[in-house]
C-alpha cells in the first residue's frame, strides 16, 4: 500500500484526517490558486474541483510513490464566491453579506495516484443559514483571529457556531473536510479505517457528520 500524502497546510484538515487513524505525510502544495478565475466557470463545483486537482497534481509530481489527498472549500451566495478574507474590512463585508442569509458550502476532495496520475474527485455540498447579525456581533467576531484563514470568513466549529441557525448536509464539509466522504474514498483504495468515525465526530464537535 502506498503511503498517503495530505497536500494541505490546514490544521483542521490535518486534525480531521488523524481522526481516521491513518498514517500520512503533510506536503503543502504550491499550486497557484489565484491563476484559477471563478469567472471562467459556470459551476462552482467545477471551480473547487479544478483547484483541488491542481493542488494534488503539483504534489503528485514530487511524490510519485504516494496517494495524494487534496481539498478545496469555498462559500457561495447569490453567484458570488467567498474565499478567505484578505483583511479586517473584507471580513466585515463578508459577515454583513452572509448575515440572515442561506449560503452554500462546496468542498472538493481529490485523491490522486502519484505514479499513474489516476484520480477520483468527490464534491460535497452543504447549506448553511445564518441568523441576522448585529453590527456589534460582527465587530466582536472580526476582532478575533478566527475569520482570517477560513472560507467565508467564519469557522463553524469556533466562535461563529452561535451565528448558525441551521446546517443542511454535512457539517464537517462546512468545517472544510467532509470526513465521511474521505473515509469512503480511502476504504475504496484499500485503506482500512478501524474507528467509528460518526461517533468520534459527534464526541469532538457535537455534529453527526
Summarize, please.
With 209 residues, this protein is of the alpha/beta class. It has helices at 11-19, 44-62, 88-98, 135-142, 171-175, 179-188, 197-205; strands at residues 3-6, 24-26, 66-77, 80-82, 102-113, 119-130, 164-168.
Uncertain segments are none
Silhouette: globular
Mean pLDDT, to the nearest integer, reads 93
Major beta sheet, specifics?
A: 7 strands, mixed
Would you list the SSEs in sequence order as H and E? EHEHEEHEEHEHHH
Proportion in β-strands? 15-25%
Please give the domain count. Answer: 1
Radius of gyration: 17 Å
What is the CATH C-level name? Alpha Beta
How would you describe the oligomerization state of the chains in this entry? single chain
Straight-line distance between termini = 28 Å
Task: Briefly note the structural class of the backbone.
Answer: alpha/beta
Helix content: 25-40%
User: How many alpha or pi helices?
Assistant: 7
Structure, described:
The chain is globular. The relative contact order is 0.17. The chain has one domain (3-205): Maf protein, CATH 3.90.950.10. The chain has helices spanning 11-19, 44-62, 88-98, 135-142, 171-175, 179-188, 197-205; strands spanning 3-6, 24-26, 66-77, 80-82, 102-113, 119-130, 164-168. β1, α1 and β2 (24-26) form a beta-alpha-beta unit. It has seven helices and seven strands. The chain is of the alpha/beta class and 209 residues long.
Please name the defining characteristics of this protein:
Maf protein, 24% strand, alpha/beta, 7 helices, 209 residues
List the helices and strands and how they pair.
Blueprint: E1 3-6, H1 11-19, E2 24-26, H2 44-62, E3 66-77, E4 80-82, H3 88-98, E5 102-113, E6 119-130, H4 135-142, E7 164-168, H5 171-175, H6 179-188, H7 197-205
Parallel strand pairs: 1-2, 1-3
Antiparallel strand pairs: 3-4, 3-5, 5-6, 6-7
Helix pairs in contact: 3-4
Amino acid at each position: 500500500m502506498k503511503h498517503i500524502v495530505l497536500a494541505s497546510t490546514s490544521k483542521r484538515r490535518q486534525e480531521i484526517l488523524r481522526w481516521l487513524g491513518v498514517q500520512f505525510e503533510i506536503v503543502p502544495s504550491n499550486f497557484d490558486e489565484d491563476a484559477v478565475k471563478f469567472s471562467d466557470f459556470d459551476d462552482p463545483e467545477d471551480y473547487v474541483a479544478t483547484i483541488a486537482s491542481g493542488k494534488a497534481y503539483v504534489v503528485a509530481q514530487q511524490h510519485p510513490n504516494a496517494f495524494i489527498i487534496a481539498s478545496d472549500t469555498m462559500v457561495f451566495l447569490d453567484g458570488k464566491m467567498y474565499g478567505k478574507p484578505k483583511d479586517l474590512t473584507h471580513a466585515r463585508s463578508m459577515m454583513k453579506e452572509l448575515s440572515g442569509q442561506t449560503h452554500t458550502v462546496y468542498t472538493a476532495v481529490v485523491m490522486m495516484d502519484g505514479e499513474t496520475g489516476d484520480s477520483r474527485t468527490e464534491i460535497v455540498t452543504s447549506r448553511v443559514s445564518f441568523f441576522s447579525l448585529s453590527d456589534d456581533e460582527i465587530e466582536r467576531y472580526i476582532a478575533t483571529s478566527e475569520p482570517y484563514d477560513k472560507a467565508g470568513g467564519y469557522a463553524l466549529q469556533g466562535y461563529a457556531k452561535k451565528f448558525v441557525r441551521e446546517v443542511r448536509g454535512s457539517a464537517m464539509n462546512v468545517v472544510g473536510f467532509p470526513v465521511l466522504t474521505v473515509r469512503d474514498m480511502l476504504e475504496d483504495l484499500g485503506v482500512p479505517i478501524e474507528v467509528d468515525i460518526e461517533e468520534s465526530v459527534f464526541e469532538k464537535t457535537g455534529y453527526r457528520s
